[in-house]
Amino acid sequence: MSASDPVAEPTAALTGPTRACENCGAALLGEHCHACGQPTKGLVRHFGSILGDFFDTVLNIDSRVLRTLWPLFARPGYLTREYFAGRRVRYVTPVRLYLFLSVVMFFAIQGSINIDNEGSGGLRVNVDGKPAPAQTGHQNNSLDFPINGKLWNPETNPVTFGWLPAPLNKALNHRLAHARDVLKQSNSEKPLLDGLFNVLPQTLFLLMPLFALMLKLAYWFKRRLYMEHLIVALHSHSFIALMLSLIVFLSKLQDWLAPTDGFFNGLLGLGMGLSWLWIPICLLLMQKRVYGQGWPMTLIKYAVLGMSYFVLLGISLAGAMLVGLLTL
Length: 328
Known about the structure:
Elements: H1 8-15, H2 47-74, H3 78-84, H4 94-112, E1 113-117, E2 123-127, E3 130-131, E4 146-147, E5 150-151, H5 166-186, H6 190-218, H7 226-257, H8 263-291, H9 295-326
Antiparallel strand pairs: 1-2, 2-3, 4-5
């Protein structure tokens, strides 16, 4: 076919000149180089173009979040099975989903805990807007706990662990003494709560691979990869974070709109009760649908996994509280 062939000219006009990657020189077939992965668009371009890409990315993430939250809430196991089937691009990735919802959950919980300090005569701790009775008389927030039948003292009656070297025992008592002084000066539990929330997200995140390992052991004969169990763990914890955020929101809504007994107060209270009930039911249905075992074995494994996880969670929370106390 000659260069003057009338068929060749429209073809060349449609395809246009071939672009080459500025990094490796390979022919470009799209907006990213298939050879080295470099995008064709850098930051050296008009600011309006960069701003447009930014908003497009943000809106795309938002749309995927909305498309992900409903099945996470109402369709147990659906997101996990979709991920295993390879249909992943339309939903938020499991890790990003967990991080997003855990941040929302921690902000919601922290925002629902209010500490009112009313001088040395009384301290009120409000959780979800519901005040506890004010304490009167002596206020015990100075870490006065018994050791060997006597009150702890960092010098005369310190905490001592036989399996720890003497310098570490000394450092431990020093940190406890510092925490005691901080609590005395603040005259409230706020520093302790702040310290707890500083380490709690990392603590719960570290539980994720442990829970996935528990699932791996429970379903050993299913021959699933560890990463599949980790996806289940991420979706499970994302669902719990979503439900806890919803419960806190309903509680605050009840305080704002219907603080006294009445129809709306009862309706919102019913919503909170159903939300608490939906958590274990949804997790059970998720485990059944993802792993596909019969109901008897699913119920047994669900009970064993649940009890084991709650023990592990209790130990982790106690450790997080201790670390938060020692880092005041």
